[in-house]
């Protein structure tokens, strides 16, 4: 589906209509700026705790309320997003959010993945 610009004269592709070749919606990673299917990305939301501090929370089921940012669940993309302060812009929060929960999730996921790879390799003789 194609929409039009503000003047109504030029056709433009709507970001909500972008799909993968298999028909799945695509999203942009806030770290590497690459596009991928929703299933390949981690949705991250900003939540405010009782003290008023903003923290990033991984939305594993993709159903938490509020604005979401999408991230490849890799250490490289997380590092790039934090360095560029992309979460604050994508989630439209004024203060710098605390990335501890997302960092722990990505590190745990990386550890689990690397352990699975090592378990699948045959032992050296």
TrEMBL record:
Start and end residues of each stretch annotated as Disordered: 1-32
Biased composition (Polar residues): 13-27
Protein name in UniProt: YlxR family protein
Domain spans labelled YlxR: 27-96
